[in-house]
């Protein structure tokens, strides 16, 4: 039986590949969540009027990939000290959020965030929010599997994130 995890950490183009390549991952879908407009489009989300953030919904086999491990991978893809976006992507639609789907996921995320804060890895406070999952809307087809469809643009979009990851993890 599979489970779902939803993570927002800046541009969803850059959030697919780190999860998609892991064992036990059944699918990774780019989309929008956390807002108040049904079925938002990419242009609407970019307008900062829907309340949505770009996110990925990960379907995984918990017998192969634990939620704890997914959260560890998530931390390594984001700047958990930046509430106003991620890397060159600025605005509320790029805010970092872990959206939990079960009480167990909530507890794991809270404990993981606490451990990261206590680790001393970052000088600034950890500001990533942990919120209950709400409706997830898949993004348009051209956003799905972007790192495979347009590897050159993906590398350009991912460059600052990759440098941050190398320096901090």
UniProtKB/TrEMBL annotation:
Q: What is the name listed in the Swiss-Prot or TrEMBL entry for this protein?
A: Peptide methionine sulfoxide reductase MsrA
Tell me which InterPro entries the record gives: Met_Sox_Rdtase_MsrA_dom, Met_Sox_Rdtase_MsrA_sf
Write down the chemical reaction(s) this protein catalyses: L-methionyl-[protein] + [thioredoxin]-disulfide + H2O = L-methionyl-(S)-S-oxide-[protein] + [thioredoxin]-dithiol; [thioredoxin]-disulfide + L-methionine + H2O = L-methionine (S)-S-oxide + [thioredoxin]-dithiol
EC id? 1.8.4.11
Q: Which family does it belong to?
A: Belongs to the MsrA Met sulfoxide reductase family.
Alphabetized Pfam families for the sequence: PMSR
User: Gene encoding this polypeptide?
Assistant: msrA
What is this protein for, i.e. what is its function?
Has an important function as a repair enzyme for proteins that have been inactivated by oxidation. Catalyzes the reversible oxidation-reduction of methionine sulfoxide in proteins to methionine.
Under the heading Gene3D superfamilies, the entry gives:
Peptide methionine sulphoxide reductase MsrA (3.30.1060.10)
Q: Which SUPFAM superfamilies match?
A: Peptide methionine sulfoxide reductase
Q: To which species is this protein native?
A: Candidatus Enterococcus dunnyi
Question: A GO molecular-function term, please?
Answer: peptide-methionine (S)-S-oxide reductase activity
Which UniProt keyword terms apply here? Answer: Oxidoreductase
Enzyme class name:
oxidoreductase
Cite the Peptide methionine sulphoxide reductase MsrA domain residue spans from the record: 4-155
């Amino acid at each position: 039986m599979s489970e779902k995890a939803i993570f927002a950490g800046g541009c969803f183009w850059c959030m697919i590949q780190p999860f998609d390549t892991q064992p036990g991952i059944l699918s990774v879908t780019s989309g929008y969540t956390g807002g108040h407009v049904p079925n938002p489009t990419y242009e609407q989300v970019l307008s900062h009027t829907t309340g949505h953030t770009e996110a990925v919904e990960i379907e995984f086999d918990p017998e192969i990939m634990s939620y704890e491990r997914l959260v560890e991978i998530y931390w390594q893809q984001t700047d958990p000290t930046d509430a106003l976006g991620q890397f060159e992507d600025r605005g509320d639609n790029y805010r970092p959020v872990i959206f939990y789907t079960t009480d167990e996921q909530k507890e794991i995320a809270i404990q993981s965030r606490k451990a990261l804060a206590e680790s001393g890895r970052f000088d600034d406070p950890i500001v990533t929010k942990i919120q209950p999952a709400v409706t997830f809307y898949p993004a348009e087809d051209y956003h799905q599997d972007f790192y495979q469809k347009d590897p050159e643009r993906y590398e350009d979009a991912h460059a600052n994130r990759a440098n941050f990851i190398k320096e901090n993890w």
